[in-house]
Specification:
CATH topology of one domain: Serine Threonine Protein Phosphatase 5, Tetratricopeptide repeat
Family: Belongs to the CCM1 family.
CATH class of one domain: Mainly Alpha
CATH architecture of one domain: Alpha Horseshoe
Organism: Mycena belliarum
Protein name: Pentatricopeptide repeat-containing protein-mitochondrial domain-containing protein
Largest sheet: none
Number of helices: 31
InterPro entries: PPR_rpt (IPR002885), TPR-like_helical_dom_sf (IPR011990), TPR_mt (IPR057027)
Radius of gyration: 49 Å
Distance between the termini: 197 Å
Subunit structure: Binds to mitochondrial small subunit 15S rRNA.
Structural class: mainly alpha
Amino acid sequence: MLRRVLRDEKRILVCARRHASADSALRAPPWSFKAIPSEFQKTQLRTTAARFNLDLAAKADIGQFSACFALATDMKLQGVSPTISTYNTLLRALALAHGGYAAPTLAVLEDMLSIGISPNVTSFNHIIRAHRTESSAFLPTILKRMEELGVAPNATTYTLLLTRFAEDGNLEVALHYLHAMRAQKLHPEVAAVQAVIILAANQGHPKLAVDLAVAFESETIRKVEDSVWLACLHSSAAVLYADGVLKCWHTLVADFAISPDEGLCLLVLHTAARNGLPDLGADVLRVLQQLDIPWAEHHMAPLFEAFCRADNFEGAFSTLHIMRGSGMNPTMETALPVVHAVERNPDVLVNLWAVLTEMKQAEKPIDICVFNTLLLASVSTQPLSRALADYNTLNSYGFSPNPETFHIFIDACIAAGNAAFGDLAFRQLKESGASLDHDIYGKMITLHLTQKIYDEAFLYLVDMQGAGHVPSRHLYEALIVKCATTGDERKTVALDEMRDAGHTIHPEFLEHLTQLAELAKAAEPVVEAPSTSPAFGRGGIDGLAQRFIETGGLVETEDKREN
């Protein structure tokens, strides 16, 4: 084994000496050339302009436009002819400078034309970009010069124009160039289209903004950003544009998985309410729940209205029960859409009571606010007798009138001046064991003050005081004014009680009472003395009686007068 290793080492050494000898040569020698100074110098002359252009581009990239013009001066001194690339680099340097240098770009353009170099679309794009801080009135002149020189605008040109006019808030001109761009089968950059869409949305044109966004995404494979859809959603919801809200909401929530803030959600809820879109309203409530925003009455009220406008009254009534179960007390303002629906079409009231009957038969929960709402709709559109019948149906549904129910009905009685129905409702409320507060007694006093004989108003005043309530100043004033109007001497007693209750009696009020008393006295009927006129009249002496007295009782008959 050792002998074999030594033999291999000897063979390797012999091979190394052979390759290291001077006689050995490479099978693939390296490429060799002969230097020709004249031809090398000629090559240097051909690349001088390119070298200057590279230096110009480097200076332009860092915004040193003054260095660019210094290099251009060196080119002129060395006799190097500029190219279109040279001039475009100078224009780019001026355009990229802070704020842009508009006037020098026009001078560069004239210099190009003076030496016979025709500008291309890139040249004009740099000129337009340099005018970004100048008045937009210069742009039509530049575009006209492009047309004169036969230079057709490209996508970059239109993008610059769209961006510029969008920044100026000139939506009409921006749309003009966008239309011209589409006519030439050109597509602008996403940023430019987004600027125009946002401008349309901010100027209160949601339909236009949404249509532009949808058209851009359908014509290209590019998508606009979520901020654009947010602007469109806000603009659409601000004017209750349902189609725009539906499109933007679905795009943001379903496609982008973005949850709008509470303020925007409220705008969307109002749109759902006005357009009868309960599904949209329910989805907004879901998003609010994801944002950990507790539901409140101002969140649920739009959903209630959406159900009403969609003629889904059972869903609307169930919403009131959900509100109370979630710790929110629905108010009459919440349920006003039902009243408005009945006011628009009084025949709907019958259908609403039928819906309640079906819910009762199906053993679905019904909130007392539903009855109060229907009662309000009844007193607003039906005779008071029908409203009284509806008022009495509450017992059949297992409810007793609460103070809010009473106030709705008693207000209708006051408006109609029907004290009998009001007294009946008051007795029913009292028998139900409900608490009789100051306002209930006050409504009864006000009701009886509408009557010609208003003694019951003083009785309710006594009951009110006996229940521990202090009558308010406006109740005393109403009583006193009524007494002064009718010449009732009880106004003095009422004034004393008002003063004892701690209410301030203003001099203006006393002066008003004096005027009312004078008017009441002037309106009293005057008893006239019997008239002595011979004319026939009640309490006077007619002509026949006068002749009887004058002739001593001898009255001529008709026959004697004829003879």
